[in-house]
TrEMBL record:
GO terms for molecular function: deoxyribodipyrimidine photo-lyase activity; DNA binding; FAD binding. Residues 469-479 have a biased composition (Basic and acidic residues). Belongs to the DNA photolyase family. It comes from the Bacteria. Residues 439-479 are annotated as: Disordered. PROSITE patterns: DNA_PHOTOLYASES_1_1, PHR_CRY_ALPHA_BETA. It comes from Rubrivivax albus. Gene3D superfamilies: 1.25.40.80, DNA Cyclobutane Dipyrimidine Photolyase, subunit A, domain 3, HUPs. Pfam families: DNA_photolyase, FAD_binding_7. This is Deoxyribodipyrimidine photolyase. FAD binds at residues 202, 256. Its cofactor is FAD; (6R)-5,10-methylene-5,6,7,8-tetrahydrofolate.
Length: 479
């Protein structure tokens, strides 16, 4: 057997089944592809490229030290694989499963066809809790648990390289904004620091943009690029909970542990229904906003100049840093969807480029959830003024990001909140009351709703009338 390990969003040495399997081969190499389809895709930003390459560089060194060459190639998957196959005659292609955007789904189908035609055996391993293929959600949580508790895959002592590793220069990719430390060692240090103490204030810190940047784990880019496996994060968290005598730390860690499940729970939705990247979960919502897209409003929102200080502060923080906490992400989307009545797709693409941690399964599910198009969750309209009162009571955060507030340079509100929300509620509640929408909601819940959440079974009523922003911890109950 000659093996090629295709590294995708799994840029690590540890807990890596494809790399471990390749250690059994008589000859092996690894490949990381800089794909034009990725660079062209509307979700991709230079920060993603720069971060990925900063993860690839130390990984290539670590693999080379154990005899495995990591080739970095620019090009589409099939022609690159074809050329490498012609040169090295690999018999097996090893990779992790990917739950990605449409372009990666199409590319995987093309690669599968090429493998079949060429006689190369392509083996893919799961690396999260996402189950492929999945008939329904029964037993999903138990499977997630079993996967996360399975022993981590050991790092092989070495590989028999198809050729000696060479340190050719990596492509240059200037970042569009400052990046956090990249690579497996940085990811591990961040995880260790969090579970050893920083998680103590997690539950208190996560909602306010003043405290969340330090109080949250900040592991999301590492999970998105795979410098850590979900299993590593889960096991480190559970080990810390078991061993710490500090009850406050254990409490914080338990809150964090729950969110790790959400990661995979949301990704599973895209795996099960890839089209939700492009269209509404609830088809009853088709046509609701599509024909009302106001580009000027959209651009004002993107620029952080809506005249709603909390919204603008969050947008400006996000644009400057590539990260924002969950509650404020939700508020930005709710504002775009309800106050500005914008369909979620374009705002979602814009945000995908801003989020260093862009993870399609979470992202598109959340975009739709916060826009009220999933058909099953409570409509959640965030009041920017209330979020400011609750999470930035003395205005420190807003002043930091909107220094011109209170001067003529700051714009007037782009919409009248009361009128905009009244219109939004009327349209959405009117729609939800229809028999078709209710029937469809039952089907969506059967397919995508969490069985552990206590959601009503099909046929039993969902409420769907609340307009308050509740606690983040109730989020899973909603979708
Ligand atoms: C509109 C919108 C879009 C989002 N897009 C993304 C995205 O592209 N990528 C992404 O990783 N997260 C996304 N999230 C979820 C969440 O905001 C981020 O995971 C979190 O802010 C990342 O910071 P952290 O790692 O410090 O999180 P922590 O609070 O420390 O949580 C740890 C991990 O748990 C998972 N997690 C936490 N909250 C959620 C959640 N609500 N849903 C699913 N998983 C969660 C993430 O993997 C996260 O890294 C989105 C949320 C919203 C409202």
């Amino acid at each position: 057997m000659k093996a090629l390990v295709w590294l995708k969003r799994d840029l690590r040495l540890h807990d890596h089944a494809p790399l471990a399997e390749a250690a059994l081969a008589e000859g092996a190499a690894a490949l990381w592809l800089l794909e034009p389809a990725w660079r062209r895709s509307p979700e991709c930003d230079p920060q993603h490229l720069a971060f990925a390459l900063a993860c690839v560089a130390p990984l290539r060194d670590a693999l080379a030290a154990r005899g495995l060459p990591l080739w970095v190639e620019e090009g589409d998957a099939v022609p690159v694989l074809q050329a490498l196959h012609a040169r090295h005659g690999f018999t097996h292609l090893f990779s992790h499963e990917e739950t990605g955007p449409g372009w990666s789904y199409d590319r995987d189908r093309a690669v599968a066809a090429w493998c079949r035609a060429t006689g190369v055996a392509w083996h893919q391993w799961p690396q999260t809790g996402v189950v492929r293929p999945l008939k329904n959600r029964r037993g999903w949580a138990g499977r997630w648990q079993a996967r996360m508790e399975a022993p981590q895959v050991a790092v092989p002592a070495g590989w028999r390289g198809l050729e000696p590793p060479r340190a050719t220069p990596l492509p240059l990719a200037p970042a569009s904004r400052p990046l956090p430390a990249a690579g497996e060692a940085a990811a591990r240090a961040l995880l260790d620091d969090f579970v050893a103490g920083r998680a103590r204030g997690y539950r208190r810190a996560l909602s306010s943009p003043l405290t969340a940047a330090d109080g949250c784990s900040r592991l999301s880019p590492h999970l998105a690029f795979g410098t850590l496996s979900m299993r590593q994060v889960h096991q480190a968290t559970e080990a810390a909970i078991r061993s710490t005598p500090d009850r406050a730390l254990a409490h914080g860690l338990r809150g964090f542990a729950g969110r790790l499940r959400w990661h995979c729970h949301f990704m599973q939705k895209l795996e099960d229904e890839p089209a939700v990247e492009f269209r509404n979960f609830a088809r009853a919502c088709d046509g609701l906003r599509e024909d009302h897209f106001d580009r000027e409003r959209f651009e004002t929102w993107c620029e952080g100049r809506t005249g709603f200080p909390m919204v603008d502060a969050c947008m400006r923080q996000l644009r400057a840093t590539g990260w924002l906490n969950f509650r404020m992400r939700a508020m930005l989307v709710s504002f775009a969807a309800y106050h500005l009545w914008l369909h979620w797709r374009e705002p979602g693409l814009f945000l995908a480029r801003q989020f260093l941690d862009f993870e399609p399964g979470i992202h598109w599910s959340q975009m739709q959830m916060q826009s009220g198009t999933t058909g099953i969750n409570t409509l959640r309209i965030y009041s920017p003024a209330k979020q400011a009162r609750d999470h930035d009571p003395d205005g420190t955060y807003v002043r930091r990001w909107v220094p011109e507030l209170g001067t003529p340079a700051y714009p007037k509100p782009i919409v009248d909140e009361r009128t905009a929300l009244a219109a939004a509620r009327e349209r959405l509640y009117g729609l939800r009351r229809t028999a078709e929408a209710r029937q469809e909601a039952d089907a969506i819940q059967q397919r995508h709703g969490s069985r552990k959440s206590g959601l009503p079974r099909a046929g039993l009523q969902r409420r769907g009338t609340s307009v308050k922003a509740g606690k983040d911890t109730r989020q899973q109950e909603l979708f």
